[in-house]
Amino acid sequence: MTPDSKACSFVIYVLVVTVPAWAAIQLEKLNSIYLPYTYENGEGKYSYNKDAAEQSTYDEKNSMVYTVGKQILHGINISNISNPIITINREYTDAQLRALGFCDDYLFISMVRSDFGGYVEVHELQHGGNETSQLVHNISVGFRPDMIVPTSDCRTVLVSLEGNPYNNRTHFIDPEGGIGIIKFTEASGISGSYNYTQIGFTKFNDQWESLVSQGVRFVYRENNNTFSNDLEPEYIEFSDDESIAYVSLQEANAVAVINMSVPEVTSIHPLGYKNWTNYKLDVSDKDDGINIRPWPVMGMYQPDAIKVVNIQGKSYLVTANEGSTKDYSDIDGSGGFNEKSRVAELTIDDHLDISAPVAYWASKNGFLFNLQTENNLGRLEVSNLEGKHGNAYDHLYTFGGRSISLYDLSNFSQVYDSGSEIEEKIAQLHPDLFNANGKSKSTIVSDSVDSRSDARGPEIESLAVLKDGNTTVIFAGVERPGFIAVYSIPGDVNSIQFESLWTGITKTDEKFGKLYDKRLISDIGPDNLRYIPASESPNDKPLLLCTSSTSGTVSILEIKGLSA
């Protein structure tokens, strides 16, 4: 065993997962790799909920997984799945690592340094007896760079610039969000010269009222903030031919479209609202259990991950409707801004007609006098910006859709939403984990049940997709506390069906931290999912990589039940 391999903790077991008897496609664990969150004198230190692993990428030629978590880059050789070896561990003392991408033996890492500046480092990887890397570029980009996506020819790299607000030690700043574009211009490729440009949303600053009227959100308007500064690009996905890039604007409940030939942002599309009177959700953490039912609230989808899929010749966007809020109350100079309130804190318009749909629904469904109690709707977190007329709220808007959706990319109309299904399947198959938090290592797993119902429920966060013949398979990472929901689309979009539900939690009667120490828990907070086809897999089987920040793990899961 090499010295570096001693820092790699892993466990091999097959976890029996409860799935419907008819389920054809499901996941089976081959291994979980537990990563150190820091090193002391060359020795890895492990602990629960330290964000040791947040994002990963994969080098199929060398069976290498690269992952970042907070301040550490790891390279893991998984050519022998039963004995993965950490070959690279590099700890940054002056930067927070945000995301990474891989292309043609080069690794791209986005980071925020202690001077608040955003950078993308480009490393050339050398393989052989020892895995090494050489820094070839250190590129200054915009504020709070996050996701990195190279084109298939590796000559262009896109990085999302979230531009989250901060205090620079003298005053409050909300930087403009945008997309950074790195183009490598020489025949020598990535190691040669490059051009960096940044595209933003300033041209929409005089269109914001029209966009808001269509459903796009402009959240923080204090301190003379502009619409373009308020937007925070999150996730980037290319069209099949890479002529268009789609960008999720999570807090704005919208998706932006970039024409790559110019390049420029050509349009911003609202994603609409989900009428929860037509579906079911659990809205309280104080109602003594699982209570899923309709309520008079509208859901803002607010996706994190997005993926483009082609189904029967048409392109669709899959969205993971996690939800997100803006709370700047701990940033000096923000004015204490927080868009989040509980329903019990708001004054509800008490007109009993359709002009005030919340009170009207309550009067028709037996909640006229107790709607805002803590065991009913009172605990739910909603926006205090939308739905208010005068001094009272006639509509309520909550964060996230608790679902996955599909949008027709020809017109951005929603053609599918999973509704209440994910929340209901968790309640049915894993009631001891229903809407559980999972962040506290000192909490007994089953005691955390229902603790996130008042917020965003299960929080669908990450996505991976694959094609199995004519069938599209979707994997959706569920953050609270840690699931992967599997769906398939064997025909047109109307044929979508639930397949199975995976979790890496093996017991519920012990504390999260104790289970972690025993290596009996993994895949908590699955931030990143990555499909590895059999042709690129070290064991010639189709795999799913699951990188999870709360458990600090990278799990290798075999995809069972595919036709080939």
Helical content stands at under 10%
CATH class of one domain: Mainly Beta
User: Could you tell me the number of beta strands?
Assistant: 40
Please identify, by name, the CATH architecture of one domain. Answer: 7 Propeller
How many alpha or pi helices? 5
The percent range for strand residues is: 35-45%
Could you please describe the fold and organization of this structure?
The longest helix has 9 residues, at 421-429. The protein contains 5 helices and 40 strands. β25 and β26 form a beta hairpin. It has a domain at 57-270: YVTN repeat-like/Quinoprotein amine dehydrogenase (Methylamine Dehydrogenase, Chain H), CATH 2.130.10. It is 6% helix and 40% strand. The two termini are 36 Å apart. Mean pLDDT is 95; it is low at 1-7 and 11-22. It has a 5-stranded antiparallel β-sheet with strand order 1-2-40-39-38, with no helix packed on it. A 4-stranded antiparallel β-sheet has the order 5-6-7-8, with no helix packed on it. With 564 residues, it is mainly β.
Blueprint of the fold:
Layout: E1 9-11, E2 26-34, E3 38-40, E4 43-45, E5 55-59, E6 64-69, E7 72-77, E8 85-91, E9 95-103, E10 106-113, E11 118-126, E12 132-141, E13 145-150, E14 156-161, E15 166-167, E16 172-173, E17 178-184, E18 194-199, H1 208-214, H2 227-230, E19 233-238, E20 244-249, E21 254-259, E22 264-270, E23 273-275, E24 298-300, E25 306-311, E26 314-320, E27 340-342, H3 357-364, E28 381-383, E29 388-389, E30 392-393, E31 397-399, E32 404-408, E33 413-417, H4 421-429, E34 460-468, E35 471-478, E36 483-489, E37 497-502, H5 512-517, E38 526-532, E39 543-548, E40 553-560
Parallel strand pairs: 24-31
Antiparallel strand pairs: 1-2, 2-40, 3-4, 5-6, 6-7, 7-8, 9-10, 10-11, 11-12, 13-14, 14-17, 15-16, 17-18, 19-20, 20-21, 21-22, 23-24, 25-26, 26-32, 27-28, 29-30, 32-33, 34-35, 35-36, 36-37, 38-39, 39-40
